[in-house]
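Hello,

Our lab assistant flagged a job as stuck in the queue for most of the afternoon. It eventually completed. Since we weren't sure the result was trustworthy after the delay, we are filing this so someone can double-check. Below is the sequence as submitted and the structure that was eventually returned. Let us know if re-running is recommended.
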Amino acid sequence: MSPKDTKLTFSPSELDFLGNKKVIDLKSSILDRIELRLGQIRLNLLQNSQNWAISSSLLENRGKITRGENHLGYPWRILDFPSNFSGLDSFSLRHLFWWGNHCSVTLHIANQRSTKFINDDFQKLLEIIAKPQNNFLIGSTRNMWSNKITDHIDIASINNPTKYINDFYTNNKFIRITRILDLDRINELESFCIETAELLFNPNYSIKHR
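-- returned structure --
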């Protein structure tokens, strides 16, 4: 069987693409700049953290940037800060760049003991998340680490969001709270990440500061 018969031959446009080094050079340049921006975001968050109502143990880890080329087929970069991963307990504010999809900031809390990281003020956190003007989504599937928008529900669409989040957390032992930034707004990434952290952790911050 010839390559043509198995549809393995390359079209002229594909051959042109294969010979175009600029495509890969541009991709590498973009991803390098994404990492630099995440590094700057980490520094800004660390500076702001003195005003946060969270456990100091979350700040012992000064933030880690991880990278990969194939999250459901597309490159990604992640900053986890603040975060604490201890056995089955986890608490992380995850800042994600996902090529071709979106940027997001997601609060992951797993297991009941993890609420200690927010000084046991879990209900106040839920009240912040439940405000529709804060534009949070809540994960609606059992996959704690899913980044697909289709695996989330807009908080504004839920009649009693505080009860919904409480019930989901009780039944599944985790919650996943997300804000999305479209890629065409990526130049706003720093302000978006900082605003999200302030909304969640700074008791003196509110959406009116925009």
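-- support follow-up --
The delay was a queue issue, not a problem with the job. The result is valid. The beta strands are 64-71, 74-86, 89-98, 102-110, 137-139, 152-154, 174-181. The helical segments are 12-18, 21-48, 122-130, 161-172, 189-201.
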